[in-house]
Write a structure and sequence with these properties.
Layout (H helix, E strand, L loop, with lengths): L4 E3 L2 E3 L34 H4 L3 H37 L5 H27 L16 H11 L7 H22 L6 H28 L5 H19 L5 H12 L7 H10 L4 H4 L9 H7 L8 H6 L7
Antiparallel strand pairs: 1-2
Helix pairs in contact: 2-3, 2-5, 2-8, 3-6, 5-6, 5-7
């Protein structure tokens, strides 16, 4: 892999040396291991969950990992089908940036297959030909989102979303490395490979935003800022929909969890005011490149406070 750097006064960009799907393969999944670092799962920040047995906690962790990955699959599908083709149409065919975008598409297709293969091996009862079990987008919302993401030059909020979510994979991979003895080996390997490619994708997202954002009218900038912050807070902060379906699936498997559902739901909503939980999401410390770029544009300053309600959050 070659990462963005400065060489002889010229910027060189990340280029993946291979898009081979063979870089990742799945054998038997070790279900005695955790699939994600515990602090990345919402329930780990609630008192009721902390009082449960390790076996119950681990099973929730495993189910949540599938939901977590479904969001990546949804994003990757949107990039491949809508956003990246829209960007390629926006720029001249012989622009070197378009070549990078085509490579971006090839890598995202492979990432989707990696995650799906791991899901089928880990949760055969939940996944077959279906890529989603927990993530469900209502038809009207999906129609609106598809229309916007097919026009990334007019609605670059979709690029801000992809940039911050893709950048989030980098600290997650580092945290999994620190806990590698505890994490299931396939999950550790997949996040390491995924993050290696995502470093270059973040650079592509940033390059596109540098080109597109200044061309927007002031009203469109404000509309895109609102859409970016709203979608991130509504769908990627508290487990209101897909994340709660994980809890319900967990309770379906583990009847002893069912009486705890009212308490768990109340405690999950309380996480909106929990600095330790918010610090695991989208913050300047975890996604510095996204926030550094947003600082260049007046409409996006104080972005961290808009997303989490706190500026410069630390734990």
């Amino acid at each position: 892999m070659v990462y963005a750097s400065q060489l002889a006064g010229k910027r060189t960009h990340f280029v993946s040396t291979t898009t081979s799907a063979a870089r990742f393969s799945v054998s038997e999944v070790d279900r005695s291991r955790w699939f994600l670092p515990g602090h990345l799962t919402p329930l780990a920040h609630t008192p009721t969950y902390r009082g449960l047995s390790e076996e119950l906690q681990r099973r929730y962790n495993q189910l949540f990992a599938s939901c977590f990955h479904e969001h990546f699959i949804f994003l990757e599908h949107t990039l491949v089908e809508n956003i990246l083709p829209g960007l390629i149409r926006r720029f001249p065919f012989d622009d070197e940036f378009c070549s990078r975008l085509r490579h971006f598409i090839a890598e995202e297709r492979i990432h989707t297959e990696w995650f799906h293969a791991l899901h089928r091996a880990s949760e055969p009862g939940l996944y077959g030909q279906n890529y989603y079990h927990f993530v469900r987008v209502p038809p009207l919302a999906r129609h609106w989102f598809d229309r916007c993401t097919r026009q990334p030059a007019r609605y670059p909020f979709c690029l801000w979303l992809t940039m911050i979510i893709e950048e989030r994979t980098l600290p997650i991979a580092r945290e999994m490395a620190r806990l590698s003895e505890r994490i299931e080996p396939h999950y550790f390997a997949l996040h390491r490979l995924h993050a290696a490619d995502e470093a270059g994708h973040v650079s592509c997202d940033g390059e596109a935003l540098k080109r597109l954002w200044p061309t927007l009218s002031p009203p469109l900038r404000l509309l895109n800022r609102w859409a970016f912050v709203y979608l991130l807070r509504e769908f990627f902060q508290l487990p209101k929909r897909a994340g709660w379906r994980v809890v319900l699936e967990w309770a379906k498997e583990k009847p002893e969890v069912r009486p705890l559902l009212p308490s768990l739901r109340k405690e999950l909503y309380a996480l909106a005011r929990d600095p330790a939980y918010l610090a695991t999401l989208y913050t300047r410390r975890r996604e510095p490149r996204t926030f550094s770029l947003s600082d260049r544009f007046r409409e996006l300053r104080h972005l961290e406070k808009s997303i989490t309600g706190v500026e410069g959050i630390t734990v």
